[in-house]
């Protein structure tokens, strides 16, 4: 797709479209969580449904500070540690997702450099990573709550293109299981999930 290695208008527009679609997809799943499902397990073995949604919500809360304000990780500190969902988890997600989308979509935002935990990173790369994270965790949440697990093909293709170059090293971070052999066939979704240690 060339999104990560060029900052052309079309690439930026495509990236923002995929980002918005990924947030909307995850948001649909959040809205589908029943009251009795928040403590259910997810494919992310360390997280319940609530903890998974909390993780994604906290990630969105970081975006305005890093992208709009130019803050460093150290400056933000522990502002978004712990529970950020409160008593209204769905509303908390919606608010955080709107703010993150607005921050990336602001004029010139994708041309900036942001400070992440591993150093300075182009905002386009940060946005692509956040998009991919939302896509994959939408599948996790779908499986956890019994929602449809088939992901939109455009989002799957985007995430697969984004994650393939560095998938082998993701398990070293401790945040992903090691890649597994994908099932027979040539499903892009199955390949994406297998790269991230998930069995479809």
Describe it.
- With 200 residues, this protein is mainly alpha-helical.
- The protein has a single domain (9-150), classed as dinb family like domain (Four Helix Bundle (Hemerythrin (Met), subunit A), Up-down Bundle), CATH 1.20.120.
- It is built from 8 helices and 2 strands; from the N terminus they run ααααββαααα.
- It has helices spanning 9-32, 49-68, 73-76, 89-105, 123-145, 153-163, 167-170, 188-195; strands at residues 113-116, 119-122.
- It has a two-stranded antiparallel ribbon.
- It starts with 8 loop residues before the first helix and ends in a 5-residue tail after the last helix.
CATH architecture verdict: Up-down Bundle
Q: What is the strand content?
A: under 5%
Helix content: 55-70%
* Count of runs of 4 or more consecutive helical residues: 8
What number of domains? Answer: 1
**Spans where pLDDT lies below 50 across 5 or more residues:** 1-10
- 3D shape: globular
Within CATH, the superfamily carries the name: dinb family like domain
Describe the main β-sheet briefly.
2 strands, antiparallel
């Amino acid at each position: 797709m060339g999104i990560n290695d060029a900052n052309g208008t079309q690439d930026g527009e495509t990236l923002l479209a995929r980002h918005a679609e990924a947030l909307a997809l995850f948001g649909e799943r959040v809205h589908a969580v029943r009251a009795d499902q928040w403590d259910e397990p997810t494919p992310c073995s360390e997280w319940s449904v609530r903890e998974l949604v909390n993780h994604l919500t906290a990630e969105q809360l970081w975006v305005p500070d890093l992208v709009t304000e130019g803050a460093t990780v150290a400056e933000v500190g522990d502002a978004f540690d712990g529970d950020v969902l409160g008593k209204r988890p769905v509303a908390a997600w919606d608010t955080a997702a709107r703010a993150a989308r607005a921050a990336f979509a602001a004029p010139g935002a994708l041309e900036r450099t942001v400070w992440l935990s591993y150093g300075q990173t182009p905002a386009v790369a940060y946005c692509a990573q956040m998009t991919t994270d939302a896509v994959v965790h939408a599948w996790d949440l779908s499986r956890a709550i019994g929602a449809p697990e088939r992901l939109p093909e455009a989002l799957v293709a985007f995430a697969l293109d984004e994650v393939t170059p560095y998938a082998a090293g993701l398990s070293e971070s401790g945040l992903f299981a090691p890649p597994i052999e994908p099932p027979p066939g040539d499903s892009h979704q199955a390949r994406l999930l297998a790269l991230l240690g998930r069995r479809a």
